[in-house]
Amino acid sequence: MSQSDNYEASASSAPSEVASFDGHGKSLVDRFQHLLHTTPALVPLIVLVISIIVFGITLGSRFFSPFALTLILQQVQIVGIVAAAQSLVILTAGIDLSVGAIAVISSVIMGQFTFRYGLPVSVSIFCGLTVGTAIGALNGWLVARVKLPPFIVTLGMWQIVLAANFLYSANETIRSQDIAEQAPLLQLMGAKFSIGGAVFTFGVVFMLVLVLILAYVLRHTAWGRHVYAVGDDPEAAELSGVNVKGVLISVYALAGLICAFAGWALIGRIGSVSPTSGQLLNIESITAVVIGGISLFGGRGSILGTFFGALIVGVFTLGLRLAGADAQWTYLLIGTLIIAAVAVDQWIRKVAA
Amino acid sequence: MKKLVATTALALCATAGTAMAQDIGACLITKTDTNPFFVKMREGAEAKAAELGVTLNSYAGKIDGDHETQVAAIETCIANGAKGILLTASDTSSIVPAVQQARDAGLVVIALDTPLEPIDAADMTFATDNFLAGELIGQWAAATLGDEAANAKIAMLDLAVSQPSVGVLRDQGFLQGFGIDLGDPNKWGDEEDPRIVGNDVTQGNEEGGRRAMENLLATDPEINVVYTINEPAAAGAYEALKAIGRENDVLIVSVDGGCPGVQNVKDGVIGATSQQYPLLMASKGIEAIVAWANDGTKPENTPGKDFFDTGVALVTDKPADGVESIDTAEGNELCWG
User: Fold this and answer.
1) Fewer CB under 10 Å: which end of chain B, C or N?
2) Window B:42-81, CB contacts with A under 8 Å
3) B203 neighbourhood in chain A, CB within 8 Å
4) How confident is the model over A20-45, as pLDDT tens digits?
5) For residue B211, which residues of chain A lie inside 8 Å, CB to CB?
6) Residue A319 to residue B182: CA distance in whole angstroms
7) How close B63 comes to chain A (CA, Å)?
8) Quick check: B210 contacting A, CB < 8 Å?
9) CA distance A156 to A178
């Protein structure tokens, strides 16, 4: 109860510099904090660069080669795509535990429709993408219209979709060789091309393009700003004329579509259609999002951060494996990173307080 | 008319037979009901139960590792007055108290496929000799390489960092078969032979197999022998090798013997695989429960082992000298879905 009451007094006695932006004796740390606050993707980018440098110095050309660095991109492509979908949902202050299951059932539908019913491959892929979108839209409808918490809705949907996946596919794998022979389009995302020693796949390109498009859309379109607004404060957004329910449903549906694309990329990556793949995608995508600096409370962070977050996990995984470390160390360090990322996020928030 | 009498008589006999055995209830508890391995196991148990007139109830965990559901299933079986339980435990040591409870209540408990810890916590274990399964593919790989085995560069694609016993046994069996000195035979990763490029984990699926293979290839692109925990991991490893154009000059060996895996051996994706027999495990298990119910006899160990060995066979189309094997045609007849 002090400042506002004593406003006259303090205003008259205060030196004029108070009003100026830089004059408050801001230390270097304060400026840095402010920079981090305004550019949410900066923290993961710095961590990423440092980890690449450290692994580059300790492992030399085994790690710091175009081949190894693009291999990381290939290894994170599925998680990267799914994490992009997860980012959209988390920006609205939601969470989607069903992302991995949606990706897997979409890939299974693409495979089974082709091989079981003999549909043309392009039709099967379209059906897979449609089912993914529909499941996402159902999630969104339950969250927005029925007003159920996203955690509960997607927890249930995760199990429903996974069970449907196993029941429908009878857990039978469609072999890579059969797909290559009869339906090569299913493996399209696995097609690769090289520039110098760097090897890229269509799946990697898809991930990069997706991230850039989403980054642009979130920043420069009305829909994108609405996503942030809904995540930050849905009531304020509603009052300012944002169609909150519409935005929520569209976000979950889009996330479902992106996951279905991840399922397609998954076929390219592993060659076969395997109902047991992708079981940990929900956790891995949330990991990438958190390390990437997107707030789990919604409304803050950028999709580029998520992309860097996925890359950090990839760099650590490959780097530590090349260094010959026990795989447990990877999990230990990634766990540390998750906690550190949230701690940094809280520290940055102080600048806004 | 004669036919009708005969049929009626037959039917009567069958009914009488069933009525007699109706008292025998049995339970089958598997890790999941979706993995083809367990689906096959259930088919084997159901067929044998129908043949012997045993009432069979099947239970399964929701996912691999779902321990609670398995405990609840054991309690249900005890309450149902079943005579015996066939169990594939998700958590081999935590399930022991529940198993003990069942045995105290007079049920015979038979572990299928996965031994409990300790192994004598169950009345008997019907399983594949996983060490032998590994040893066969190790011997085959060494024999196929011939003199080059001395310069081999080996990638070890294991199951999980927690080193579950089935993964350790196969891994160590392979190394022994290949002629590599084991460190502690109860864990993998402590061997010092320079021919081993490294170990990585796959979770037993294609995705993990590909990633693990890529990681090890980045460590040493000259790898020419790949051990894999199972055939899905092998298929993933093959994709990684194909991506760098080395699919034809690397030997991949595996364990399981599922139908897609045998098909992959036929197509040259996998050099050789060790086949196990889940159907046999389950049918033998039902027979053992009936024997226990009738006269209280328990099955005996296979001589020299602390479990009942349901057998394993090496499946390959390129037989190697001194290693017994069956070809893919025969492997295909014996494979499980």
Assistant:
1) N
2) 62
3) 279
4) 555 455 688 888 888 887 888 888 99
5) 75
6) 27
7) 10
8) yes
9) 34
CA B167, CA B44: separation in Å to the nearest integer? 24
pLDDT at B11 over 50: no
The predicted-structure confidence for A332-350, as pLDDT tens digits, reads as follows: 999 999 999 888 888 877 7
The H or E element containing residue B158 is strand B154-158
Of A63, A167, A271, nearest to B239 by CB-CB distance is A271
Helices A244-270, A99-116: axis angle to 10 degrees equals 60
Task: For residue A39, give the nearest of A326, A308, A316 by alpha carbon.
Answer: A308
Peptide bond into B118 cis (omega under 30): yes
Q: What is the distance in angstroms between the Cα of B264 and the nearest Cα belonging to chain A?
A: 8
CB contact under 8 A, A272 and B235: yes
B232/A173 CB distance under 8 A: yes
Q: How far is CA B26 from CA A69, A244, A295, B20, B124, in A?
A: 55, 55, 52, 15, 15
Longest Cα pair distance anywhere in chain A, in angstroms?
83
Interface confidence (ipTM) of the complex: 0.70
Beta bridge partners of B225: B154, B251
Which residues 6+ apart lie within 8 Å of A203 measured at CB?
A74, A77, A78, A81, A189, A190, A265, A268, A269
**CA dihedral sign of residues A195, A198, A200, A206:** negative
Q: What is the largest CA-CA distance in chain B?
A: 79
A87-115 residue pLDDT tens: 999 999 999 999 999 999 999 999 999 99
* Strand spans (E) along A196-351: 198-201
Of residues B36, B209, B216, nearest to A171 (C-beta): B36
Instruction: Give the tens place of pLDDT for each residue, B95-141.
Output: 999 999 999 999 999 999 988 888 999 999 999 999 999 999 999 99
- Give residue A131's pLDDT: 98
| Ramachandran area for residue A273 (φ above 0: left; ψ -120 to 50: alpha; else beta) | beta
Structure tokens that stand for B248 in this block: 């034809």
pLDDT at A8 over 90: no
- pLDDT score, position B175: 97
Reply yes or no on whether the pLDDT at A172 is more than 90: no
Residues in CB range of A134: below 8 A, 6 or more apart: A253, A256
Q: Is B171 helix (H, G, I), strand (E, B) or coil?
A: helix
Q: For residue range A208-246, what is the model confidence (pLDDT) as tens digits?
A: 999 999 999 999 999 999 999 999 999 999 999 999 999
Rounded Cα–Cα distance for residues B47 and B50 (Å): 5
Residue contact B207–A167, C-beta within 8 A: no
Q: Over the range B179-205, which residues count as b (16 or more CB within 10 Å of their CB) and which as e?
A: ebebeeeeebbebeeebbbbbbbbbbb
